[in-house]
């Protein structure tokens, strides 16, 4: 369950919103049930699929309100990682051969994922960092796992140290950030050497510390990166946790960058001067019983 609650110090007369909160149906991931609820009830509501195949929802609340809550619940079945892709010739071969430009028409669909963003994210610091990983002839999967481990080792996870607008070069300089920053650093490195990379968002089922009970509501939305391989396969990896994406990850959406798939984005009409956002996420195996939410809300998602 993913719950976002906005509260305002004055009446809001109208709220428009668009959200990416419904997990994707994939070969290794099946959505058994999914629902997005808005409180107050919206006057207009629609769902659709964007250019990347993600499910999105649009709503418009026209009744006056001082709080808005968006709650997404879903039941998802996720398979373990497909070892066949990791042992494929494309994964074990030289990384240079995984460039979309190196395989002709087969790589055409992935070309947009090679292009840099605007403003550019591929800086001299990114090229230097990537150069230590993508050495000539190195096996693709070896280079990707090394990049994952290096980012995990070289960057400190610090909640609140960055914002959505923080640039990759700033993260490279400070050597700290959160999951979305580490995913974007990885993507910039991959693109700097001509590889196709995408930004993926979703959830990660986390384990409690040894000897302690699971704390429901303590999870947050998560982000990671994926790299394209010939054969139209994508290998997803999680620099924040130094691992390949597995059955504990639930994929919600993907795009070229965070801006393509924010969990929730909108516009309000109000005289309010202040607002507050509280976000909580519960990710648990079927059969677990959610307990009370934490007394201190989780602020914005990572």
TrEMBL record:
Q: Which SUPFAM superfamilies match?
A: Cysteine proteinases
Region annotation (Disordered) ranges: 281-302
Q: What is this protein called?
A: Transglutaminase family protein
PANTHER family assigned: BLR2979 PROTEIN, BLR5614 PROTEIN-RELATED
Against InterPro entries, the record matches this protein to:
Bac_transglu_N, Papain-like_cys_pep_sf, Transglutaminase-like
Which Pfam family, an example, fits this chain?
Answer: Transglut_core
**Where is the Transglutaminase-like domain positioned along the sequence?**
171-241
């Amino acid at each position: 369950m993913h719950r976002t609650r906005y509260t305002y110090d004055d009446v809001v007369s109208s709220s428009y919103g668009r959200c990416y909160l419904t997990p994707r149906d994939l070969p290794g991931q099946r959505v058994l049930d999914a629902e997005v609820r808005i409180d107050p009830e919206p006057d207009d509501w629609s769902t659709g699929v964007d250019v990347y195949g993600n499910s999105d929802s649009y709503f418009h609340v026209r009744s006056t309100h001082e709080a808005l809550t968006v709650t997404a619940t879903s039941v998802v079945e996720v398979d373990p990682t497909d070892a066949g892709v990791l042992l494929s010739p494309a994964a074990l071969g030289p990384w240079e051969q995984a460039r979309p430009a190196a395989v002709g028409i087969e790589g055409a669909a992935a070309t947009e994922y090679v292009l840099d963003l605007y403003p550019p994210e591929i800086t001299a610091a990114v090229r230097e960092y990537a150069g230590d990983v993508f050495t000539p002839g190195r096996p693709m999967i070896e280079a990707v796992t090394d990049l994952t481990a290096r980012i995990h080792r070289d960057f400190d996870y610090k909640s609140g140290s960055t914002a959505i607008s923080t640039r990759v070069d700033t993260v490279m300089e400070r050597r700290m950030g959160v999951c979305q920053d580490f995913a974007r650093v990885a993507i910039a490195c991959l693109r700097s050497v001509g590889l196709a990379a995408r930004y993926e968002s979703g959830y990660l089922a986390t384990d409690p510390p040894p000897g302690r009970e699971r704390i429901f509501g303590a999870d947050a939305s998560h982000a990671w990166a994926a790299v394209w391989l010939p054969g139209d396969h994508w290998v997803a990896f999680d620099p924040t946790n130094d691992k390949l994406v597995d059955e504990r990850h639930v994929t919600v959406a993907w795009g070229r960058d965070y801006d393509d798939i924010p969990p929730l984005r909108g516009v309000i009409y109000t005289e309010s001067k202040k607002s507050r956002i509280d976000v909580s996420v519960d990710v648990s195996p079927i059969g677990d019983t959610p307990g009370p939410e934490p007394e201190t809300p989780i602020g914005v998602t990572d």
